[in-house]
Amino acid sequence: MASQPKTLADFGDFTKMFADMKLPAVPDMEAFVAASRRNIETLTAANKVALEGAQAVARRHMEIVQQSMSEMTEALRSLSAVESPQAKAARHAELLKAAYEHAVANMKEIGDLIQNANAEAVHLLNARFAEAMDEVKALAEKSAKS
């Protein structure tokens, strides 16, 4: 069985390996660093928007659960007050219809919250991507002139 390399030196001379590579020169390192900083800032802002959206969804979900529990308690109370089986069945149908309509409205609201947060985050990323492409183009033109 072959022995495993124990040190970095066992892999060979990295400086020679990288010296042989023809890596393009960065014409303006400060511009490159500034662009990278803006990329990270934009990514951070997009993540913040996504996190705030997730928090808004979680808060609204908790509100919906609390509201649903309250409505269910009231529905059971009102259903138990009805005496005749026919009236009870009619009231039950009304309650089911109302519960279904609330559920659909709540799902739409949650979906809208998620969609809005995602759209805002994607807008930030798309805007930065367009700026980055303009910066790359400007750097390439500057490099071609040098």
UniProtKB/TrEMBL annotation:
Pfam families: Phasin_2 (PF09361)
InterPro entries linked to this entry: Phasin, Phasin_subfam-1
Phasin domain location: 30-129
Name of this protein: Phasin
Protein species of origin: Rhodopila globiformis
